[in-house]
Write a structure and sequence with these properties.
single chain, 125 residues, alpha+beta, Herpes Virus-1, 3-stranded mixed β-sheet, 11 strands, elongated
Amino acid sequence: MSANSYEYKLLGFSPELDWRPLRFVSPLPPAMICSVCRLVHRTTCYLLCGHLLCIRCYQRCRVDDALVCPLDSNVCPEDDVLWRNFPLESLARAQLSVSLLHYPSHRHSTCAFGLKHVLCFLPTI
């Protein structure tokens, strides 16, 4: 990763973007990045210990009616978990680095435009 970009893998925003590495000119807000797997997931939760988990990591850490944080082993009751949902538009403030996606364009565009552009040209898997 270059000094001028931040690479993330998104999950839960759209099938076309899931698991694809995308590079941004500026870092995404920490509230969008899972403390365990480092994925940018659409649905995340805050624990009392201050760590943030995506829904996938949350499901792996549930024990009865509580959650055991995989990073510090603190127990957090499910009632104390704060959930957040990020729509695709929440990425609009970040700058998607189009040139780092192996496209001919060498300019940066905002995510609101950039993601739509990328969706048009992503190869199907």
